[in-house]
Write a structure and sequence with these properties.
There is one protein chain. This protein is mainly beta. The chain has eight helices and 53 strands. It has five domains: 339 residues, TIM Barrel (Alpha-Beta Barrel), CATH 3.20.20.80; 170 residues, Sandwich (Jelly Rolls), CATH 2.60.120.260; 89 residues, Immunoglobulins (Immunoglobulin-like), CATH 2.60.40.10; 80 residues, Immunoglobulins (Immunoglobulin-like), CATH 2.60.40; 140 residues, Jelly Rolls. The relative contact order is 0.09.
Length: 915
């Protein structure tokens, strides 16, 4: 969706531009990075290089993809069925009951490298305002990481639980951003039987993974024949997809094959929406260039299509609530929405607007989706302000039958709780188990003297990682009402509602009843639970056979003063004993070695899923039982499992729709850690070229299992030490060797670096300096660069505001020519984070090589797993003219080189090694 004016194509602009750059960066080679596996394991469990990741493919790799052969596929499945939902009553008079909202959100930080089922990062886009969204596009894709990207399974789980279909992305970028016409031609190619193999693969993937269709964004210029084939493919998809699946087309390519954004539904692009009686796409996203929408509405009606299947795009990626267009922009002269609303990158609330600060994220979510007042009833915002989505779009609810259970768990947090007790420390995100959050954010009525406000709280929880906190001043005996859920349920007389709270003396149930102006208020019976939680149960006999339209509560305290009240759980319906079948074939399908004491464990099992909402995984270590994870899937990865013994037991327990565990149907399996080996060790010095009396710091990088590190450096002061980091000095010039020994319970490993430290007399005339800045040093060879302003030479200019950037190579490299041989002692590299960019783009793996002739190379540094913004590597002194930097893994996940500075530390001379 190219719409921003581009002055140049640089690495930085690539990352920040809007639609076509939203997911990540550009590299030219289409490589499907499958999990690499080694079957040679002592435990018999396959070892994978990384934990399961979400899928990202190119056309040729899509054709070869199969859920039967992709080892990550089971972990990318969503087993949560799309929940039925209904429209609530209008919260304010401006809301439309016909217009819809399409959210095109970058739900994951990267196209490639996204953990399939969450991880320990709390700052994730765990969207919860589903009541205003009708379809979610999980936007992703880049020419370097993959252009065919299904949603991760955890996103589909949370969307489906809230009644929202979610679709994946097929993204053909503009040529300026790595797009290739060949990719489009591959995508639309027919086989000998006249079928579209790529289209069949799209449907196979959406069925296997359990999501609801595809958003097709074609912005690569092609010929007329390819454009016609694309339309034919869309019609083919319409004929073969299920009714619940949808295909969404972006207003970009025309029948001529050229990309020309119309900003309207018109005669130029209508054939990709409707052709005669043939539906070509289910929805059309109108590009942001639209000026008026009445013509598009008329054209849709001429085609006998619902105008609310058109989505007028508003780009909020960069400016969010400060965007020039507002929700009111799609209204006609009668103040009714002419078409539906399409939001590009409402994840601004976390990214650009929140800078991944979770507290700012929740505040931005309020401003963006509701309004500045945090009350969907409020309609005071003017046309020059961001009115909030709640202003013009009616809420929808999935609470249309009982039982209904929520723990107000938003899917991330600082710890995990069970029944009010903390059972697992540490930040996490797991959108797969996100609950249905309140329909209204927030409708609160305080009686005189009360000043309660609602927030999502991670301070305490009943189940999961969060609760709702009502905080503020309270006056004795005065009530505060909070309206929680829109509903459409007729309860039976035997059914009940229970609410679990903390910090309130009295909680009453408040039900809206259809046809009755006054709400029904029900008092309940309290039961004290652990850790200050109180469960209040309310009989629904007085509401039997009447339509309940809303559920809320009144809270009241007996004393005046500041208060914090937590809402921990709401359960509606008659709890029954449920039957779940036995979990079968529990097995360990793989592992990832984090370190020699830590492994991440892939588990799979078989289960019919009847009466089962999720599965909880426990670790049994002797008599100790510890919670490790929860999923709605029948495959899960336990992260960072610590070795206590060589084996341990894991138990999987099904959980029913009432939140009750069924231990009788659980299954247990024994997991074997890899045999503990002798420790690994490497040595690094902060400098290997030092004057007499100067302090040298030596660091040992060792296996996690290492219990002790012993050093011996003959001639140093002191000569023997212990610890992973030591400091020494020398009182005589010379070349010194270093010996370090790492010890663990399996034995010891000795490492000797011969002639590693060069000590000189202060009067020797040796000057240590950055050889990169010498006039003779040049950089004219390498894999490539984005443009002249980001060429190799900017890596050697000593300026952290410039950089070398290569976005077109699989493994970027460059060579520094020192002009003649010099003495080299080490290096310092300044990566993306040092230049003010994301540390996720720091070089992960690199090699440094030296040569005297530029032909024969010696590897002097092999750095792996770097995450630092700047990295130092000292080496034993070597004489060389050429130095090669080879980026084996240019980012933590991607392939773009970003080197802001490269210091080559040494002496502008030779011959000192033999002095």
């Amino acid at each position: 969706m190219a719409r921003k004016k581009m002055k140049q194509v640089s690495c930085y602009s690539i990352m920040l531009a809007a639609f076509f750059m939203g997911a990540s960066l550009l590299s030219m080679s289409p490589v499907y990075a499958e999990s690499k596996v080694s079957t040679e394991t002592e435990s018999g469990i396959p070892i994978y290089e990384q934990i399961p990741e979400s899928t990202a493919l190119f056309p040729e790799t899509l054709l070869n993809w199969s859920p039967k052969t992709d080892p990550d596929a089971p972990f990318n499945v969503s087993r949560v069925q799309l929940t039925n939902r209904v429209k609530a009553d209008k919260t304010n008079a401006d809301q439309s009951t016909e217009a819809k909202v399409l959210s095109i959100a970058i739900v994951n930080r990267h196209t490639k490298g996204t953990p399939s089922q969450g991880n320990t990062d709390k700052a994730v886009y765990n969207f919860t305002n589903w009541q205003y969204v009708d379809t979610l596009v999980a936007w992703a894709g880049s020419s370097g990481e993959g252009i065919i990207v299904p949603p991760s399974g955890d996103v589909t789980d949370s969307a489906h639980r809230n009644g929202v279909p979610v679709v994946g992305t097929v993204f053909f970028p503009p040529e300026a951003y790595g797009g290739k016409a060949e990719w489009v031609r591959q995508f639309v190619q027919k086989d000998a039987r006249g079928k579209f193999p790529m289209a069949d693969k799209l449907l196979e993937m959406s069925t296997a993974y359990g999501f609801d269709g595809w958003f097709i964004n074609q912005e690569t210029n092609v010929d007329e024949q390819t454009a016609a084939a694309m339309k034919e493919l869309l019609i083919y998809l319409q004929a073969k997809k299920t009714k619940k699946q949808q295909i969404i087309w972006y207003d970009s390519m025309l029948p001529s094959g050229s990309v020309s954004w119309q900003g309207a539904l018109n005669d130029q692009n209508k054939s990709y929406f409707q052709e005669g009686r043939k539906r070509v796409s289910d929805k059309l996203f109108i590009d942001f260039r639209w000026r008026e929408l009445a013509g598009s509405k008329v054209k849709a009606e001429e085609l006998k299509r619902d105008p609310y299947e058109l989505y007028a795009g508003i780009d909020v990626q960069a400016n969010g609530i400060n965007s020039s267009r507002k929700p009111s922009s799609i209204l006609g002269s009668t103040s009714q929405a002419l078409v539906s609303l399409g939001l590009y990158c409402p994840d601004w609330t976390l990214r650009d607007g929140g800078q991944y600060d979770v507290e700012r994220y929740w505040e931005n979510e309020k401003l963006f989706w509701i309004n500045a007042q945090g009350d969907p009833r409020d309609i005071t915002s003017t046309k020059n302000e961001w009115q909030g989505i709640s202003r013009y779009f009616v809420e929808k609810t999935t609470v249309n039958e009982f039982p209904f259970l929520t723990n107000f768990n938003v899917g991330n947090g600082d710890a995990i709780y069970q029944n009010g007790t903390k059972v697992k420390e540490g930040t996490f995100n797991n959108r797969s188990i996100q609950d249905v959050m309140p329909t209204y954010r927030w409708i609160i009525d305080n009686q005189a003297g009360n000043q309660l406000e609602a927030t999502i709280s991670y301070e305490d929880a009943f189940n999961g990682g969060s609760s709702i906190a009502l905080s503020g001043q309270m006056t004795a005996g005065q009530e505060t009402f909070i309206k929680l859920y829109a509903t459409q349920v007729k309860p039976r007389a035997s059914e009940k509602v229970s609410i679990i709270t903390k910090g309130t003396d009295q909680t009453a149930l408040v039900l809206g009843i259809k046809g009755k102006q006054a709400p029904l208020v029900i008092q309940g019976n309290q039961q004290a639970l652990e850790n200050g939680w109180v469960k209040t149960t309310y009989p629904l006999k007085s509401a039997a056979c009447q339509m309940i339209t809303s559920i809320g509560v009144n809270v009241k305290n007996q004393q005046t003063g500041p208060a914090t009240i937590y809402l921990g759980q709401l359960m509606a319906g008659q709890e029954k004993a449920t039957f779940t079948t036995q979990i079968k074939n529990l097995r360990f399908s793989g592992k990832t070695i984090v370190d020699d004491l830590t492994e991440s464990v892939r588990m799979q099992w078989e289960h019919q899923g009847k009466n089962t909402a999720s599965y909880r995984i426990y670790r049994e270590e002797g008599a100790q039982l510890s919670f490790e994870g929860e999923t709605a899937n029948t495959a899960f990865t336990l992260l960072n499992q610590k070795r206590i013994n060589d084996t341990t037991n894991y138990r999987v327990v099904p959980v029913d729709q009432y939140g009750k565990e069924n231990q009788k149907s659980s299954a247990m399996a024994i997991y074997t850690f890899e045999a503990l080996k002798k420790p690994e060790i490497s040595i690094n010095a902060d400098t290997t070229l030092s004057a007499i009396g100067e302090v040298i710091t030596l660091t040992a990088n060792v296996s996690k299992s290492t219990e002790q590190v012993h050093w011996e450096i003959v001639g140093a002061t002191p000569q023997s030490q212990s610890g992973t980091e030591i400091s020494v000095t020398f009182d005589r010039p010379g070349i010194y060797s270093v010996k370090a020994t790492a010890v663990n319970s399996s034995g010891e490993t000795e490492l000797v670096r011969e002639k590693y430290l060069y000590i000189y007399d202060q009067n020797a005339g040796i000057k240590k300096e950055n050889l990169s800045l010498l006039p003779s040093t040049k950089a004219e060879q390498g894999s490539g660069y984005t443009n002249e302003r980001e060429s190799y030479r900017y890596a050697l200019d000593g300026n952290l505001t410039t950089k070398w950037c290569d976005n077109g190579s699989e493994k970027p490299w460059m060579i520094a020519d020192l002009g003649e041989e010099k003495t080299i002692a080490g290096f310092e590299l300044f990566h993306a984070g040092a230049g003010g960019e994301s540390s996720d783009w720091n070089t992960r793996d690199y090699d440094l090589l030296v040569s005297s002739d530029g032909v024969n190379w010696i590897n002097v540094v092999q750095r792996r797993g770097n995450t630092e913004d700047s990295s130092k590597d000292a080496i034993a002194l070597v004489e060389a003219r050429y130095v090669k930097l080879s980026l084996e893994k240019a980012e933590q996940n991607g392939k773009v080189a970003r080197i802001y500075d490269w210091q080559i530390i040494g002496v502008n001379d030779t011959g000192i090694i033999n002095q």
